[in-house]
Specification:
Strand order of the largest sheet of chain A: 6-9-10-3-11-12
Number of helices of chain A: 17
Helix content of chain A: 25-40%
Structural class of chain B: mainly alpha
Structural class of chain A: alpha/beta
Number of strands of chain B: 0
Number of strands of chain A: 24
Radius of gyration of chain A: 25 Å
Radius of gyration of chain B: 23 Å
CATH class of the largest domain in chain A: Alpha Beta
Number of helices of chain B: 16
CATH architecture of the largest domain in chain A: 3-Layer(aba) Sandwich
Distance between the termini of chain A: 40 Å
Largest sheet of chain A: 6 strands, mixed
Helix content of chain B: over 70%
CATH topology of the largest domain in chain A: Rossmann fold
Number of domains of chain A: 3
Oligomer: heterodimer
Order of helices and strands of chain B: HHHHHHHHHHHHHHHH
Strand content of chain B: under 5%
Shape of chain B: globular
Shape of chain A: globular
């Protein structure tokens, strides 16, 4: 075997409170297509950010060798200088600049700050031909489709004399035809000696183009499979991605399940900007009194979009379908109507959608149900503080005072404030979106306990989670979504990570 | 991070005991959490003291104190509305033009059409509300940035003012109307050295303020919260009472409380109450602090923003009336630059440019800082050119201090 082009040795990266990567090793051979697989949160994107210098040298432990030399990248520029180019999940193009301008953004053909347009256009045309994109380089990026934009990104990478191309979920936003073209292009680049690392959830794509596959789980390298003689099956990859000890991570609970209290029927949601794209497509789910129901799915499966569109149409356009509560169809056209009908949605992104970080704990807890601590539009701030104090005790929010700003709390305690807010609103149906994202194991346990006790009080609970063990440990029933469609429903007894993963990866068609 | 528990023994951690805190620690905590507010009061005190010395005692002469209040009343009225707009994360550049429009309308109604002044006054406030509703509609429901909508409003209502007045001033107003800005509380009873009703009003305000403080403290205690130490509470009460008493005596030894000061006190109490205690006030902070989070908590963001702009329209109109009454004319160029003074007052008073932070008291203090600077520098004979430079630097320094502080706390 030849000398590896890239070697990452025992990479460890810690974020406040969370170990994202621990002792990860990755070895990539020159001229190969190397796939990285793993669940959401397994550390794939973090590893690539370490490699490309987004997380600079010094912010992680471990060593990187590129073409045999040790590297200490301090930013993206310095990794690009060595020929390592990353194309992120979200495209980094400026929509109102032309294709040519985008390709050479930050890397202009210029002398003394003056751009040489003729050279720019000529070079851009050549690059576009190389990626097989028959477009005028002076077209605005906003005027071409997402698939073509992805090709522009690759042309941009090629313009930087790329040796190692990293693609993070390159086909996530593409349809099958565009995906196919893109994969062909990557294969074509390989024949020209470009090495690629591809991160993808779509296992069929990986088995089609990858020469070797590294599997990450919980921030660790599990194994590297190389496609020698016989191809690797999707089942084999899934087995590596899941499979984990579930002992003692979840509190015991005896479910006491009643009648159906809440149901969504034939729910369809279109993308707010791309109005022809169905983000949620004809989904029907229900949840019973005292039941905890899970929603499984990979990124882009439409779980959050489903929840937010039901919660007062907070997401999407062209929404159709029925919401039924206690056997009657209800109108939930605004968040306040939804809350009025006893529905609560605790967001996955507490910093942006859940909390007012400028305010204190008390005011965050009371916000969704201010009416309960006020009379005739006047807030009784003493009563309010008593309520906050009660939640501080019952949820064991670790803070010196409920008048402390929520911005100062740790992730786990912030999450407890979000939950307190919705428990105080006293809903019948709670939709919890990634309730334990980014918090440590101890706090997770406390939150599971809270969720269980809410179910024991007879509330109907929907948990959205990217962590399959969490769904298996917590839920009585799990729905799987893939590409906006319901692909499976599994009762607790029958659910395994393998079966769920299979449903989650099932293509819509 | 705490140790990681993987076994099902994560019993609720007992809340940290609330230790008896030392006085030093208590003061430090309190100052830290209210740094901006206390800082502003101290800064205002310092500025007053400096100019009092530099002007050889002229600054705090009864006549001059009355002047400062009357000269700045319209800016203070605007600052109250502006700080609320800023708290919700918006800005209003049109208030100067809207104030002028209101003054011009009042002049046309009263001088040209002989409408009785109370009727004209109410009509103007209604028009102000309509103007606010117009701008609020575009901002809240259509989603055009407030900067743009109110920039447009600034042009539109300035033009409308000039059209109404045909480019000329209209004067004079009926005396009743002039009193809004130039009048004083009428004298009653025996002649003393001081203005009697002012003394009575001062006593009432002191009693009211102290009563409120004591009631608050009692209620806090009844809900079982830590209250401030008794000596500190006493000191605070003495401070409040002394401040009001001094102001009362100063005003009472000249011609008494100006009518406009009464308007200001009422507005201050009402708006401080609204922002602190009502659901609408709370929602304003929530919308400015994190708009999507507020929306997802059931706050009707659009309605909140709309109402805040309607309110700004009413206050801008009131400010315009006060200014017109003071000039005793409706003039085409009235109120130019008011928006900048009001915005500066709100920011000096601790409002955050990104929304969610600010108080009515802060805006008033910020307005007074600017007012005292204006007045003091004029007394010293400093030209308006230098005055502007200094006011600009004060704004920069106040907000810079804020940002510096936040960074220090954040790190």
């Amino acid at each position: 075997m030849s000398k590896p082009i890239l070697e990452m040795r025992s990479i460890t990266k810690t974020f406040p409170g969370v170990k994202a990567l621990s002792d990860v090793n990755l070895m990539v051979q020159p001229g190969e297509i190397h796939a990285i697989c793993g669940e959401n949160g397994a550390g794939k994107s973090t590893l690539m950010k370490v490699l490309s210098g987004v997380h600079p040298h010094g912010s992680y432990e471990g060593e990187i060798f590129f073409e045999g030399e040790p590297c200490e990248f301090k930013d993206i520029k310095s990794s690009e200088r060595r020929g390592i180019v990353i194309i992120h999940q979200e495209l980094a193009l400026v929509p109102y600049l032309s294709i040519a301008e985008n390709i050479f953004l930050g890397n202009e053909h210029a002398s003394g700050g003056v751009i040489n347009w003729n050279e720019t256009i000529t070079h851009a045309t050549a690059l576009l031909a190389r990626v097989g994109l028959p477009e005028n380089p002076q077209t605005r990026v906003a005027d071409i489709g997402v698939g073509k934009q992805q090709l522009v990104e690759i042309a941009k990478a090629l313009s930087k004399e790329v040796k190692l191309l990293i693609l993070d979920e390159p086909t996530a936003a593409l349809n099958d035809e565009d995906s196919g073209k893109l994969l062909d292009l990557i294969l074509g680049l390989k024949s020209h000696g470009v090495t690629s690392i591809i991160i993808s959830h779509k296992l069929n794509e990986i088995t089609r183009i990858a020469d070797s596959i590294t599997i990450l789980r919980d921030g660790r390298t599990i194994e590297t499979l190389s496609v020698g003689g016989e191809p690797i099956s999707e089942e084999r990859i899934i087995r590596g991605m899941v499979g984990r000890d579930l002992e003692h991570r979840f509190p015991d609970r005896t479910p006491d399940i009643g009648e159906v209290v809440f149901a969504i029927e034939d729910w369809t949601v279109h993308h707010p900007i791309d109005q022809h794209r169905k983000v949620v497509d004809g989904v029907s789910i229900n949840v019973r009194r005292g039941e905890i129901v899970g929603l499984a799915g990979l990124m882009g499966a439409g779980r959050t979009e489903l929840a937010m569109s039901v919660f007062g149409r907070s997401y999407g356009r062209g929404i159709s379908g029925k919401v039924v509560k206690d056997g009657k169809e209800i109108r939930v056209r605004s968040v306040s109507e939804a809350i009025g009908h006893g529905i609560a949605y605790a967001t996955e992104d507490r910093k942006h959608y859940g909390l007012n970080l400028l305010e204190n704990i008390t005011r965050n807890i009371s916000l969704a149900a201010l009416g309960k601590v006020s009379r005739r539009f006047l807030v009784n701030d003493h009563e309010e503080a008593v309520v906050a104090e009660r939640f501080r005790k019952s949820m064991s929010i670790k803070t010196p005072s409920v008048r402390e700003g929520v911005g100062k709390l740790s992730g786990g305690n912030q999450q407890k404030v979000v939950l307190s807010k919705w428990i105080f609103a006293d809903p019948d149906v709670l939709i919890l979106d990634e309730p334990t994202r980014g918090i440590d194991v101890g706090a997770k346990y406390e939150i599971y306990t809270v969720i269980n006790s809410l179910a024991a009080q007879g509330k109907a609970i929907v948990v959205i989670s990217s962590e399959l063990p969490e769904l298996l440990g917590l839920c009585d029933r799990i729905y799987a979504l893939s590409e906006g469609r319901l692909t499976g429903e599994v009762p607790r007894g029958d659910a395994t990570q393998e079966t769920l993963m299979r449903y989650m990866m099932k293509s819509g068609d | 991070m705490t140790t990681i528990e993987t076994r099902p023994a994560a019993a609720p951690v007992p809340p940290p005991p609330s230790p008896r805190r030392g006085i030093g620690e208590f003061l430090r905590d309190m100052i830290r959490s209210n740094l901006r507010q206390y800082g502003m009061i101290v800064a205002l005190g310092l500025i007053v003291l400096l100019f009092q010395i530099w002007t050889g005692g002229i600054l705090l002469r009864p006549l001059n104190v009355t002047n400062i209040i009357q000269q700045n009343s319209y800016i203070l009225i605007l600052a109250i509305g502006m700080v609320i707009v800023i708290i919700t994360g918006h800005i209003d550049l049109s208030v100067g033009s809207v104030a002028a429009f209101s003054g011009a309308t009042a002049a046309v109604l009263m001088v040209k059409h002989n409408v009785p002044w109370p009727v004209a006054l109410v009509l103007c406030l209604v028009i102000g509300a309509a103007v606010g509703a117009w701008q609020g509609y575009w901002i809240a429901y259509v989603g055009i940035p407030s900067f743009i909508v109110t920039l447009a409003g600034m042009l539109v209502f300035r033009g409308a003012t000039q059209y109404l007045l045909s480019g000329q001033s209209i004067a004079p107003f009926p005396t009743g109307f002039q009193k809004i800005s130039n009048g004083f509380l009428p004298e009653l009873g025996y002649h003393t050295l001081y203005h009697n009703p002012t003394l009575i009003l001062g006593a009432v305000v002191i009693a009211g303020a102290l009563g409120q403080e004591i009631r608050d403290r009692r209620r806090q205690a009844s809900y079982g919260f830590d209250t401030t130490p008794a000596w500190l509470f006493a000191a605070k009460c003495v401070g409040i009472a002394a401040f009001i008493a001094v102001m009362t005596l100063l005003l009472a030894s000249y011609r008494g409380v100006p009518v406009v000061a009464i308007i200001l006190i009422v507005l201050f109490i009402a708006y401080a109450f609204v922002m602190r205690t009502t659901v609408l006030g709370r929602h304003s902070y929530a919308v400015g602090g994190n708009s999507p989070a507020a929306q997802l908590s059931g706050v009707k963001n659009q309605r909140v923003v709309f109402l805040v702009f309607v309110n700004m329209g009413v206050l801008a109109s009131l400010a315009g009336l006060v200014f017109a009454a003071r000039l005793n004319a409706g003039t085409p160029n009235a109120g130019s630059g008011f928006e900048l003074e009001a915005i500066a007052a709100a920011f000096i008073g601790g409002a955050s440019a990104s929304g969610g932070v600010g108080t009515v008291l802060g805006a008033i203090i910020g307005g007074l800082v600017l007012g005292v600077l204006n007045n003091g520098m004029s007394l010293l004979g400093i030209g308006t050119d230098v005055q502007q430079v200094i006011k600009g630097l004060v704004l920069l320094a106040a907000v810079g201090f804020d940002i510096y502080n936040k960074k220090k706390v954040g790190s």
